[in-house]
Here is the input.
Amino acid sequence: MKKLMITLFALTIGLSSLTSCSADSESATNSTTNETVRSYTHSNLELELLDEVNAYRVSVGLNPLEIIEHISYKSSEHNDYMLATHTVTHEGFEERKSNLQEVLGAYRVGENVAFAYSTAQATVTAWVNSPSHKANLEGDYTHFGAAIKMDDQGRKYYTNMFIKK
Here is the structure.
């Protein structure tokens, strides 16, 4: 019974994360840093997620996106926040967006988050089945990055950010 309740809780949190995503128009704002992070090392799972996103884009006739490590670094910072607060949220998106605009020259920024999916493929499938997340996957972007982090119970937090330069 306890395991069933934990599973239902995880599914509820995971599904609620699918109901929100962030995308913006082409506005610019100030940022707190102007240094590009060039040393982010992707895990195999993160690279698999990025490959799954690109495979989906290509399957619907869109261009594959190029990885920028700084975007993955900002995604990783957001995962740290979600882990610390035990929430799946887009809180702080405006600050991340501003950073990507100033540092990378982005004029369009989008973000998908997810929680508790066991594989990259399951995460992308869930995003494809959510209209707002699908809009980001199919958006007019040129570059992307992603980060995945686990909590102490092995549940994964995902952040995938997109930009157009």
About this structure: The two ends are 50 Å apart (CA to CA). The first strand starts at residue 22 and ends at 23. The CA atoms of residues 21 and 147 lie 16 Å apart.
